[in-house]
Amino acid sequence: MSFKKAKLIAAVAGAALLVGGLAACSSTKTATPGATGAAAAGGLIGIAMPTKSLQRWNNDGAHLDELLKAAGYTTSVQYADNKVDQQITQIQNMINQNPKVLIIASIDGTALGPVLAQAKQKKISVIAYDRLINGTSDVGYYATFDNYKVGQLQGQYIVDTLGLSAGKGPFNLEPFAGSPDDNNAKFFFAGAWDVLKPYLDSGKLVVPSGKAPASDAQWTSVGIQGWATATAQSEMDNRLNSFYTGGKKVNVVLSPNDSLALGIEQSLDSHAYKVGSAWPLVTGQDADQANVKNMLAGKQAMTVWKDTRTLGDQVAKMVGEIVKGQTVTVNDTKTYDNGKKVVPSYLLPPQVVTKDTVKSALVDSGFYKAADLGL
Ligand code: BGC
User: Fold this and answer.
1) Ligand 1 within 6 A of 257 CB?
2) 29-49 pLDDT, tens per residue?
3) Does the Cβ of 227 fall within 6 Å of ligand 1?
4) What does the pLDDT read at residue 15?
5) Could you say which of 33, 209, 324, 325 is the most buried, measured as most Cβ atoms within 10 Å of its Cβ?
6) Domains (ranges, CATH) in the chain?
7) What is residue 42's predicted lDDT score, i.e. its pLDDT?
8) Is 184 in the pocket of ligand 1 (CB under 6 A)?
């Protein structure tokens, strides 16, 4: 962490202490204890989500809120507009309310050490939700989908669909990665790149923009800060304008998630790419509604679906185990080293969804109603 950032965090934490007890600037949803007193007995659970701007985090927050209230807890659900200092203030305010457990989907996984030290002092347990919290021993557990597997599924889909293992190619590839401050993004990229790299080495995949990281470790060179759709769109515009002149066409875009894919697809649209006539293969992740519609319209080939309901179920179970002093269920104690400790984790399986499986995977499971997707 830079000195400047450390100072900012200290200042924000200090200011938050002064205003402790005041409502945080984003929406607070604190349930009132039921007449039975069940909620009071369960205690408060603080939930910190990164942003409302992405559909998945709204689903995540709402599902956790519902499950925990049904289990008798009081909840405080906070969204931080993707602003690190705002999230720290929100966590600080929740700590001031003495929650039993904090569930945190961090914005910058390296920025929460100081505020979590205060949680530790008050014996508040912390679960890192979806994204690992780095550089602190004050995080108890981590629950997520298998992030490396997400990337592998994207890479393998490209290999299989283009027929790369059968020797087809060369194809023009443009790779993108997620936000440099999100620990998941490096796992997504590494999973995909480990599958694709042999085909770059053999020349069956070429990157006309030259923006091909030399190794997994160089992934931030193609990272899109804050997972912003608009930034992905302008980056794709730049690559198309500069490197795809004279009739050269991009054949495949490795996009780590749906918010980037949306910007990339808008860029392709504005550069006269047409569905049905060499529209490139674009990958994604999250099964966001707009992207599922784009899959049905032929603009996105696949998405890696993470049924966030199962993640919420798992985390609600962990909360119950923590509060009751039981052994917390985990299934991975090796992968997620945060620099201070290997955080005991529960990894859930992600799955590929394509146009052909939208109905069976997303509608039949109740994740979407057919009408949400125009089906
Ligand atoms: C999540 C993805 C999401 C991305 C952007 C990642 O940490 O795992 O599901 O697309 O953040 O919000």
Assistant:
1) yes
2) 433 333 333 334 589 999 999
3) yes
4) 35
5) 209
6) 4-139+307-343 (3.40.50.2300), 147-305 (3.40.50.2300)
7) 87
8) yes
